[in-house]
Design brief:
single chain, 1 helix
Length: 187
């Protein structure tokens, strides 16, 4: 049972991997990576949309609570500079919330409650016509916009239609968020 070197045969030093074994291992690893990337992208987009929808929903709910608590109108509007309303900027560029103490519809520095940064460029936010320029919660909790008193914000991300989100605001000020497939398939 002893080999010529004096060591048993099963103690022979390992030679490493052959070129064929290495190529097979790399092929299997590459296949696993190629299969995992689309799944990872889908998971990332789903999380991105959920976060964006939650940010918007939280801002709207917070504005309603603030209006009831302060017994004043609280307005949320799109912004491009984080200090003033800018309807032309679009909601995707961010929004701000302010307690309209002087009832002029313009945020003063002392009235600002929250400023939200722009959404990720992979997220598309469609705003209802009723709220294209602003959403205002009244001290009663009810809501009014520049063009009506209810509507649904729609959030999408590319061609991942199964992850669409809908943030609804009713005339009573109730804010709802839900995942709904194919909201943006035609956009």
């Amino acid at each position: 049972m002893k080999a010529e070197s004096g060591f048993p045969r099963f103690w022979k030093s390992p030679r490493g991997m052959t070129m064929i074994e290495l190529m097979v291992t790399l092929a299997v690893a590459a296949t696993l990576v190629v299969l995992a990337i689309p799944s990872f992208e889908r998971t990332t987009r789903n999380a991105l949309l959920a976060t964006s929808a939650n940010d918007l929903s939280t801002s709207l709910s917070m504005a309603r609570a603030q209006a009831i608590k302060a017994r004043r109108n609280v307005r949320i509007c799109p912004t491009s500079n984080n200090t003033s309303c800018d309807a032309g900027a679009g909601w995707s560029n961010g929004w701000l919330m302010f307690v309209d103490r002087d009832a002029n519809g313009v945020p003063a520095t002392s009235e600002l409650v929250q400023v939200t940064d722009a959404l990720d460029s992979k997220v598309t936010l469609t705003v209802p016509a009723a709220f294209s320029q602003w959403v205002q919660f009244r001290p009663t909790g009810g809501v009014i916009g520049n063009g009506g008193n209810s509507g649904n914000f729609t959030l999408c991300s590319g061609d991942y239609h199964e992850f669409s989100r809908l943030v609804g605001v009713s005339a009573s000020g109730r804010v709802t968020t839900r995942k709904q497939a194919n909201l943006c398939a035609d956009s």
